[in-house]
Amino acid sequence: MKKILSQLQNPFKSVKPAGGAPTTHESVAAEGAAQSLLFEIDEQLSGQIIGWLVANAEKRLSFVIDDEVSVAIELNQRRPDVAVALGVDELCGFATILPRHLFDDRLHEVAVVETDQVSGHFSCLGVRQVRLRASAGAIAYIEYVERHSISGWANVPAGSELVCRVGEGMLEEPLTSPRRDVDNHLLLPTRTAIGFSFPVPATFQWQDDDVVEIVARHNGSELTLGENSLVNAPLAKPSGQIDGLSKDTVFGWATATSQGNFAVRLDGETVLPLNTSIDRPDVAEVFRTGDEAVGFELPLLDGFLDTETVRVELLFVSDSEPIVCDEKILSATISGDVPTPTHQLPARRRRAAVVCWDLAHNPAGRALVLYQILELLFDEVTLIGPMFPRFGTSVWAPIAENENLNIVTGVVDGFSDLEAFANEAASQSFDFVWLCKPRYPTLFIGLTIWERCQPTIMLDIDDYEFAFFKERQINGEASALLSSLRSDQVHLADLAGTTLAHSVIGAFDHVTVSNPSLQSIFGGTIVAHSRDESQFDAALFDRQALRASSGLPIEAKVVVFVGTVRRHKGVLEIARAIGKSSRSDLRLLVAGTFEDDRIREEIEEAACGRAILLSDVSFSELPTVLAMGDLVCLPQDASAETSYYQLPSKVADALAFGMSVLLNDLAPFENLKDIPGVFFRQDDESLEAALDRVLESAIDKERVRETFLSRFSHSSNAMRVSAMTDTGRRRASSFDHATAFPQIMGRTSKHLISKIHRKHVDASQRDLVILWKQVDSGLFGRRVDMVAEYLVRDGHFDRVIIIDHPLSLAGFRDLEKRAASMPLSNASIVLSRFVGKYFGHFDKASLVQRSFVYSNRSEMLFGRRLPSFTELKSSFQAFFDEVGLSAGASLLVCPYVECLDELLAAAKFDAVFADLIDDEREFATTEERRRLVEASYGKAISSSSAVFTNNERMRETFSSFCDAEKIHVVPNGVERHSLSADEVIRVRPSVPGGPVIGYVGNLRDRVDASLISYLARTLPHATIVLVGPTGGNASIEQLAEIENVVLTGALTYEDSTRIAAGFDIAIMPHRINELTGSMNPLKFVLYRELGLPIVSTAVSNLLGGTAEGVILTSDDPKEFTRGVSMMLERLKTGEVKVEPLPSGFYWSARVAEIAEIMGEFTDLKKERQSGLEEEQEQFNTGTFLQA
């Protein structure tokens, strides 16, 4: 621990706080070890440690492993067992990801370190020796032990049976259900977490000291997944719900328990016990609690109904502190009888819906894919769609056979039927709705639901719907088309309705498409047709037995086609090729619905007896058919327009089973060309020749399967859309309802008035978003930090939101490595701050800071699925919705940045500005990199109304990008500092009584190491203190070998300032070159504000470089050293006078200048208010957005 604490607590050699003795890391370690630590690691699972920790919630917590790796601890898991045993907050559990190399079956030193978020002080709470197991896959966790059941969750090996052993007894046949909360928060090796509840018979005998074991049985062997003693097992947390208020009575339900009683607390004061009960069969059905779920009715006392609302809390009262099970603010004006229980889930669950325009035929296939993806993200999913008699009056067979689907459907034959069906669907409340296919019925039902409950809404497009219509011409305005639909003059699924549906696609912020061809038309995120990886897996089937039972030779090469057999899909062409082939082992296996009997006969005839045609195969039987195949061939008819926009689900089918795929080279398949096992038919190549070529080509089935898992599985798609489905805050802005409603519904949305109201509220707040070019905002007092602080402090903006430049996951891992291996870099404190910003730990009312991580490989970080770079737009949108970005926000971008397009697309900014701080082109090491940086500057400058920079040279340099008058020079400034003697930190001189000469700033590439070395060796009685990150610069780090040189490493702005205030002389030994010529050094004005004599090389852009108390030299080591010696002599004789800074040098003045220029482009309040009043008048008169 000494090494890590020396870095955290005292990173310089020896520091003596004013008025006290030196603080050493040994004393800190001793002090930390003395503290009591309530901390346990219960389990290890797939790169994580799971346990609990009781600590001060107001301080940041970290694990430090082996004095090298530091990882943040998030106490975000509920641990009722710990809460009951120790009387602490339930939210004390953690599931912390550690680097995988630490799991090596060896003992590791794990220290818990806490950080005061105000002072930044670190202390060690305690150290444990922990053996981190190399494999930790199968696991079970017992959450609750009740009189009637034992429940929890388990990560069960495939094909295993789960049982529970209690002492000498055995419980079997548990009630199970998916546990997606576990899947989403713990990185399980496979998505196989299930919840279990073992019913305990009334006759079952157990003892208090019995051990409960959760056991997996597999092929006659047993594996213990988890165990706990009944004495230590957590008791079931009491639960209940306040359903409502009727007349003068509160009613609800609670679960009975022998450990305490329930009561109701009114307005936080009056507590009334619950002594009566009624049957609640709906609760018993959902929770399977038998007769232990009771309903209650509690008459209120006189006086509580005199106010408009009453706050009602349901309490569980026992020997410990009361537990609040539910809380409601109820209206005291409601009247009526107590309603009959509705059998809906008593607890709040996240609910999603998929809406499809018809469930009687194959459009429902795509809807099923979306449904199954959402099952991985939500607690409940509902499939909603009508059935038009034209296509059938029974649910499409592959869906009808699945008894586990939650379906809302009905026959619809006209507009009035559609309206009634939509209202029925909207009687349920949803958090998220995914609209499948831009057809009129889909949009009408979706908008009806949205108007009732305002869910996040997203549109999915997997076909070019117009390709299904031979006649494309349609006449008439939107109002005329609507009239024809409402009067049933045209079918709701025909061209008129489809045209209206397509007219509002642009109103949706979130669009998904199935392939690149559709993406080129509609944009959006690609969500390919995917399959459930747990069912579509060759390892689950006996291929030889299946072939034998189907009449297929074991050694045959089988081409498989599954699905609806239509002529444009090329099945007949495959049959002809197989019939002509000289290969006697070639077979065609077709399983699906035939367009007509004639095509069935033609296939049999063309294949010359080599085809096996199966009758309709259910969707559940589909994997069985695929397991028999070697190749999926899709020779889509290039003359059919639909072929240019469809990516058949057969591609996912084939890849799931490690099969080869043969395709014609069509636009929808463009992004499949890098996939192993996917082959394309060559120009002028016959199909029989192509089949022979593919079948003779060896493929790596495991690689094909891996590609399926990463790109075509339900899990990978769920990761892609998870940010867009985030409903932590309702996003009514997920589509423009003001545009969509008139086109589809023929009227304005009933919620438009509330939208106008929100605009009024937003207009009164002025937000500024700053996109910073690096990941270190909030640490070092850089220009971006000062601009943000003073824009808010001096009232120029109400709030500033700083977004650090997003890091790739690889970049984040590199930052972790540097934090562990480069103690003199800034990586450690940048990492700590970055993670804090990632979770919003530093947010304040007037200043919000956020960091982002992305990955293009569908990866996770801290239990969160990462967006790809192209999905950052959605991540930014979700973040802006989370923080409530004002309608009139502005943007200040500090290039070089790579994600400006994504940020500009995420919000509508009133004005955009740029601040050019350094010329990043000078850091470019290749010509390609320089071009990228230059393009970024061009984009930022061209997007901006005004551009700022900190010196005249930068203005001249970038004047080639725009008119020079557009660029405003606002130099860097300084804060006013008045440090007391106790706040100043003076580094102990290496020679008693000797001077301390110091530098504060980045040491990576601008400081001359040879100059500093010469200075230190020439003046051995002086102590040279270098405060700042070295960035791995070996020549700088080697200076630590000189006895009178102190390297502190990176420190925060506050600590750096306190140390600088203890210098006798401040130096700025910069190289004089192109790089430093474009800088406007902040440290120079900081030195002057602190009243320090300064010796600096004569670099450009020094503010007040000729002031008294400043000596400028060349970058020659001898001349610079003479300048320092001269300043030391002046100090001895008292001749040094430091000239005070002019008032215009302070940040308040600098930022006021920036704000004044911004105001020329952002003072739009009056115009916005006028526009809102006009919009309100249009709404009142019914003329708003007429179709």
TrEMBL record:
Residues 1-26, 1168-1187 are annotated as: Disordered. Residues 542-705 form the Glycosyl transferase family domain. Residues 1-12, 1178-1187 have a biased composition (Polar residues). Keywords: Transferase. GO terms for molecular function: glycosyltransferase activity. PANTHER family: GLYCOSYL TRANSFERASE GROUP 1 (PTHR12526:SF600), GLYCOSYLTRANSFERASE (PTHR12526). This is Glycosyltransferase.
